Amino acid sequence: MQWQTSRFLIDLSAPKVMGIVNVTPDSFSDGGKHATVDTARRHCDQLVQDGADILDIGGESSRPGAMPVSLEDELARVLPIVRHAVTLGVPVSVDTYKPAVMQSVLDLGADIINDIWALRWRDRPGGLSGESVVAGHTHCGVCLMHMHRDPQTMQVAPMQGDVVPQVLSFLELHAHNLRGLGIEMARICLDPGVGFGKSVAQNFALLARQADLAALGYPVLAGWSRKSSLAAVTQTAAGNTAHMDVQERLVPSVTAAVLAVQNGAHVVRVHDVKETVQALKVLAAMKLQQR
């Protein structure tokens, strides 16, 4: 399987690690740590050195309860980093739902639009749509994610019932809509949206039955890194660690990335690139002996 993007045809015969670059003051995991242009650029460099196959740059937090930022603020945060990242020799993804940001970063050479809204968001009725921006580009890749409600309310009232068929039908529908606009199947990737309006049990159901999503025929991106569901199922001598510091979630995060790949994920979106790359090399060595 391959993922067509603006500058790269990504070979997914082996899993790819997408390194997270949050250019935000309030992201749940590393808000403020890479919020200046210089620190964000250095972080891009470090992630590539650590083995990141793709960089994913975001200028607006999508953590539960996060408030939207203006178009102007997001552009000011993201554009200088994209200009640098496209010189590093790896595909560059931009995590945004705003069509104007999509157009601006694609004009700078970004390869992938990674949208938590699955291109549904409009700044105003009849305004520019993400679908039209992506459809108007010759080769850019796009990742469609499932999100229940919106970041302000998604965990206030999570989904009900068996989420797996609901997530699959949503993603299949929106991928089908893109193909109707002339966007080739090879450009589209799907993300089940771990933590975006789902309970802990529902998130793990998506992991356990992730092969159902992979069976749709599109690449699958899994984003488990440092999510609260990992903390919720981790126990220590002190008791439940659901509220443990996000920096302490390394082992559960790497474990979830490996399990996601074993269950059919083609791309894992992570904060801890070096450790995830190492773990996936161990998995690859084992699989080599199974052939």
Descriptive report:
This protein is α/β, with parallel strands linked by helices. It contains 10 helices and 12 strands. An 8-stranded parallel β-sheet has the order 8-7-6-5-4-3-12-9. α9 (250-262) packs parallel to α10. The longest helix has 18 residues, at 163-180. The chain is globular.
| Strand content bin | 15-25%
User: Taking Cα atoms only, what radius of gyration do you get, to the nearest Å?
Assistant: 18 Å
Largest sheet: number of strands, sense, barrel closure = 8 strands, parallel
Biggest sheet strand line-up: 8-7-6-5-4-3-12-9
CATH architecture: Alpha-Beta Barrel
Number of domains: 1
The string of secondary-structure elements, in order, is EEEHEHEHEHEHEHHEHEEHEH
Q: Which stretches of 5+ consecutive residues score pLDDT under 50?
A: none
Instruction: Please give the number of β-strands.
Output: 12
What's the CATH topology label?
A: TIM Barrel
Tell me the span between the first and last alpha carbons. 19 Å
Mean pLDDT: 91
**CATH class, please?**
Alpha Beta
Shape: globular
Please outline the helices and strands.
Blueprint lengths: L1 E3 L4 E3 L4 E7 L14 H14 L3 E5 L12 H15 L6 E4 L3 H9 L4 E4 L14 H6 L5 E5 L17 H18 L7 E4 L8 H9 L1 H5 L6 E2 L5 H5 L2 E2 L2 E2 L9 H13 L4 E4 L2 H18 L1
Parallel strand pairs: 3-4, 3-12, 4-5, 5-6, 6-7, 7-8, 9-12
Antiparallel strand pairs: 1-2, 10-11
Helix pairs in contact: 1-2, 2-3, 9-10
